[in-house]
Amino acid sequence: MAIFLTRDSKVIVQGMTGAEGMKHTRRMLAAGTDVVGGVNPRKAGTQVDFDGRTVPVFGSVRQAMDTTGADVSVLFVPPPHAKAAVTEAADAGIPLAVVITEGIPVHDAVAFQAYARARATRIIGPNCPGLISPGQSNAGIIPADITKPGRIGLVSKSGTLTYQLMYELRDIGFSTCVGIGGDPVVGTTHIDALAAFEADPDTDLIVLIGEIGGDAEERAARYIADRVTKPVVGYIAGFTAPEGRTMGHAGAIVSGSSGTAAAKKAALEAAGVSVGATPTETAGLALTLLTAPPGNPA
Predict the structure, then answer these.
(1) Do 24 and 33 meet the contact criterion of CB atoms below 8 Å apart?
(2) Alpha-carbon span 54 to 36, nearest angstrom
(3) Is the Cα torsion angle 204, 160, 222, 291 positive or negative in sign?
(4) Strand locations in 60-157, DSSP E?
(5) From its phi and psi, is residue 51 left (phi > 0), alpha (psi between -120 and 50) or beta?
(6) How far, in Å, are 127, 220, 221, 288, 292 from residue 270 at the CA level?
């Protein structure tokens, strides 16, 4: 089992015929993803060959869904067109839209997130690497060959740290890894992923990666304390970030004590989360918890 994305997911790619769309569609197919179509109104009715797999191009998301039964869309569209592309996907009723695009204006993200939520479309992103259920399906740009199927669930703001933890815990493996993105406004939150992992019988431990800025991790800590029974290991990026600077992601800005790595670490630890000082230490904590004898927690 996995969360949000399984081997039964049927994936379409909005922007498949662009350079990034072509490159990552090929990688998704190689990972076993059932990519059933692309969307480009200017190339509707054509087909694209990916190493022997022919994928049709449709004129709209609705046409693609009606023809293929698609239930996931991955969006590789330029920032000025992202709002319209997400709105189209939500209007068509796609259950899951994975918005890889970075640099989307915040007011556009606010608008399309609200629009999608009202139509029961889950958004992952924007400015995210997507998600992968190893051995089942890969929707986005996460490398598929750095880990294996297993019983760890991972939710992360950072794409790079997603990859690092996947690699460091490759001998254990993952149920699903979700890169939620680091912009100020994202669709799927840490809490959404925590709830899904808590309900997933094939996830035994959860790794949560946060970063400085905002209060998402503090809210996640309160949720963990109240609702999560599985062990959670955390890491917060940005302990050395200077105050008042935006570091990397648009959402990673600290003012005074609000949003600091230290405050987030303290909140998570108060909720019973083991927080590593480095990604490698975080992986070690996860390994220790998973291998502790029953009745003798580490």
Answers:
(1) no
(2) 9
(3) positive
(4) 72-75, 96-99, 122-124, 130-133, 137-140, 149-156
(5) left
(6) 30, 12, 8, 20, 21
Torsion of CA 83, 190, 32, 76, to 10 degrees: 20
* Cβ contact 112:73 at 8 Å: no
Q: What is the pLDDT of residues 230-253, one digit of tens each?
A: 999 999 997 655 555 555 555 555
Other CB atoms within 10 Å distance of the CB of residue 243: 12
For residues 40 and 17, the answer to whether their CB atoms sit within 8 Å is yes
Q: How far is CA 14 from CA 43, 114, 118, 157, 224, in A?
A: 12, 20, 21, 23, 35
* Cα(54)–Cα(39) distance, integer angstroms: 14
Q: What is the pLDDT of residues 155-204, one digit of tens each?
A: 999 999 999 999 999 999 999 999 999 999 999 999 999 999 999 999 99
Mean pLDDT value across the chain: 93
Secondary-structure percent of the chain, ordered helix, strand, coil, rounded to 5: 35, 25, 40
Nearest to 279 by CA among 230, 236, 217: 236
**Predicted structure pTM score:** 0.93
Helix (H, G, I), strand (E, B) or coil at 213: coil
End-to-end CA gap in the chain: 27
Which residues are designated catalytic? Answer: 249
Structure tokens at 41: 């109104």
Both structure tokens of 143: 């490398």
- From the CB of residue 257, how many other CB atoms can be counted at a distance below 10 Å? 9
At a CB cut-off of 8 Å and minimum separation 6, what does 188 contact? 4, 122, 123, 124, 178, 180
In 3D, which of 126, 166, 164 has the Cα closest to residue 150?
166
- C-alpha 273: how far from chain center: 21
3 state DSSP class of 258:
strand
